[in-house]
Batch of 4 targets.
Target 1
Amino acid sequence: MTATTPLTEDQERMLIETAREAARLHIMPRFRQLDADAVTAKSAADDLVTIADQEAERHMAAAIAAALPGARIVGEEAAEDDPSLVGQLAEAPLAVIIDPVDGTWNFAHGLATFGVILAVTVRGAPVFGLLYDPVLDDWVLARKGGGAWFCRPGAAPRRLTMPAQPSPATGGFLPLRLFPAVAQARLASELITGTRTNALGCACHEYRMMAMGHGRYMFGVGPKPWDHAAGTLAVTEAGGMVAMLDGSPYDPSSRKGVLLSAQSPAIFAELQTGLGWLSEGEA
């Protein structure tokens, strides 16, 4: 199938190499080497930012601006200072969304489950996604209409597809802490019992697992575009289904409601029906 991304091969390669370079220069040298004053809290005590986040985002934003003049660049840390950037995604002819260190809590506490996420959108619709693991230097890449691929240096890309017959024992990824307390116990009882359900604290790796067929579902609450725009494209291109829990399309410029990624349309429908009690107002 022919991809419908506006990017050239050289531009795709630039985006990948920019993420890898930012990781080499600004992220990995600081992994398990952070001083206490290099980590601060943002909206909550466990919503952290480190000097690695800040310097990696500056590095990536500068490189991308030089290579893609005119593109709107929306970095997680920049959007923290100027929330209006997210609302501009819907109208931007071309935008690049950056999460310089996804899973910052893990990174700051020495857990090697973090990544770099990059998405390209056209008028709000994701057309290219990158889920990069700096620790092992490999990545999941997705193109609208062009599939999802697992890539690593020196090896041919491997196309990712959902399993034809998902195992009923497979669970998914459920960030219980992001749901209201009144909903957490019921969600846990309905989704976790008897399955391998996880919360990795890192959307990058959860979406990688989903695209590789290792999860039946994944939830996003009040979804932030830097966490979800790239991954939802990867899941869709691997053959899964992504939408808001109420059935409306995912819109990266909106941070309302519950986002559901599922291994298949049938699993999406099953979960949507079973979780009808979970209204947007509760989430």
Target 2
Amino acid sequence: RYSALTQITEGNVARLAPRWVFTLPNVSQGQVTPVVADGLMYVSAANDLYALDAGSGRQVWNYRRPRTRGLAGVAARGVNRGVAVSGDRVFMATDNAHLIALNRFSGALLWEAQMADWRQNYNGTGAPMVVGNLVISGIAGGDEGARGFVAAYEQTTGKEVWRFWSVPARGDPEADTWKGSAIDHPGAATWMTGSYDAELDTLYWAIGNPGPDMIGDERQGDNLYSDSVVALDPKTGRRKWHFQFTPH
């Protein structure tokens, strides 16, 4: 997690000491990177978001909703990896693969968009990403057979603007890189948050393993775009190029 900040150096890092501790109740697996904006720190778990005073650790507000019963995948264990902030909004994926926008000063719910049907083994764990007037999110559930995608939504309304599927559907170009029945439940999830290059106006997103991961009898071929990085046009979701690190 490279940072260009210079306040902490090799000369003073040994003097760092705890200032405060805030315990998230009922969280068994914390995988979140906190986000700080204008003195407020946002810390999340599954369906649970805290806004804290970054200087003191004092709780400013908490947004919480019940966990989804019957959920499969990592989100069922309470994992959420963070939020995105833009203007007066904070964005978070819920355990059942919804994307929500809250007022970041009060915690009031502004809108909610269903990214996918959790009954098809989709869930949400990754931190969304803000690019321009869009908020972009991937999904989890690949090891349970969900078909991965990255989708972009209007920040103000939650309306979906575009969707990039990480595995082509039958009959689409490059579907012949999947030979067998696994293309119908292919994995290639997108839970790792992407990166954006403003100079090139290009969004980069890493795509996970194909499924089933331990046996490839029903997915002969390279299995695009699993185990790849894809470069996307952030305004349209159009693929510019891809590189597959581990074919098949």
Target 3
Amino acid sequence: MSQRTLGVEEEYQLVDLRSGRLCSVNDRVLAAAGPAMAETVQLELKRSQVEVSTPVCSSLQQVAHELRSLRARLNEAAARCGTQLVAAGTHPTAPRQEPDFTQKSRYLAMADQYQETASQTLICGCHVHVGVEDPELRIAVLNRIRPWLPTLLAVSGNSPYWAGDDTGYASYRTMVFRPWPTAGMPQPFDDHAAYEALVATLVGAGVIDDATHLYWYVRPSARFPTVEVRIADVCLSVHEAVTVAGLVAAMVATACQAELDGGPPARARPELLEAAVWRAARYGLTDRLID
């Protein structure tokens, strides 16, 4: 099978260079980054967050190069604003409620609709895109990789602290994100038409505006011909992020080949999958996972 394209999105916190406290200056950092980074840096839900996106990559070596460059260049821009990037799923000491929303229509609408859930959401993840051109194959991959996602979360857990407390979790970000109405593990779909029908139903019910508001652990990207895996915390180091990207690429490639070979997908009760996600979020790699 030919090499599949890759892309990685990372969310970061902006903290004061001296105190380490959150800084609500993402608009200033974006301006300091300048036009050269306009295609790769975006504002996030809270004013103390930014997101970077690699270009389409053809190898893990390229992913590593792009992430190192993006982190370095954006950190330079942040330093000009008296801040620095932190790659962690949660901030260790920020208050439980941080309602300082980025002043964009999308985020203000989310704040208005989801209220306290949106206010509590100060978390950062790592999203990996793997190119799969065929929409039907994208759905098949989503169905097949679901049982492996808890293991990916265990590998990437990077958010043990919340509001000054050691939560006892490897990924408390996962627990903070659960109240969103479209967060969690998607159920299997018969085909792409079934997926589109569900999106239309959710939009019609007023739960989401469009498919970009599906916050499942894995989804067909609404913008690109990719499978997007979203369960991982943002990783502390580029090396760890590239490892996560490589694991996702391998999962997708394996699922694609299994689908083409006609093998049956693994079946698992949704309750068991959610229990596996919880156990991965709680213990990371320090205890047994659910097989």
Target 4
Amino acid sequence: MKKELKKEIIFSSVIILFFAVMLSPLLIALSGSFRSPDNATSFLELFNQFSLESYKEAFQKMHYFRALKNSMITTFTSTALLLVIAALAGYALARLKTRMGGFLQIFFLAGMMISAQMSIIPIYSIMRFFKINSSYAAPIVMYITISIPFSIFVYTNFVKSGVPFALEEAAWIDGAGRMTIFTRIVIPLTKPVLASIVITQGVPIWNDFFLSMLFLSSSTKKTLPLVMLSFLGDMQKPTQWTMLFAACFLSALPMLIVYAFLQKQFVGGLTVGAVKG
């Protein structure tokens, strides 16, 4: 018993130390965000001041509501279309028992190995050819394309392990059509994996900087990650760290709210099929 207790204490201590190290930058940033912009003391002196002045100035300088609207347009539109495509394709692949079904699963899975940055020049040329390179459509198309392989992969496996085919057969015998079965039976049962897709793919889209910078050059279309650049300094003007910290938390706040509402479904979508009984 003593050996087991010692092992448990050592293991718990290592876990606590690990999380303390990993969370320390976040804690420093949170402490710094509650300082006034003219507070030049070391950021290692945690919470030596409580002021909302940096949040107020960051809110105004970011044109927060305009940037928030831009981020919501790109993120929510991309995520909504992604859910529709992933659900339709994932369900079809899960119920397709031919060789073509296996080939298509491998085909979509192979898309996870290709980085968009590797082909950004031809992609930009294509967007420019269709004259959408400076519109919301360009990053939305890219976000959906990048996220489809993983989303279809997760949804297909969820349907195979979490949606009993007997329910669909019973509905089919009762006269329900394929679309009715999909919308009335499959979709309600796959809410956990849909929530998982929203979190795992929506957060990277929300935080994306590269594609937004490439396609949304207009100041009126910049998303939240782009407007935070205004707080970074150069040789003549130092970085406004307290306002940058405040801007980071203002940018993360909407996704934290979404996660708070979807966390139960998110955990369920990740753990389905982990235990067979």
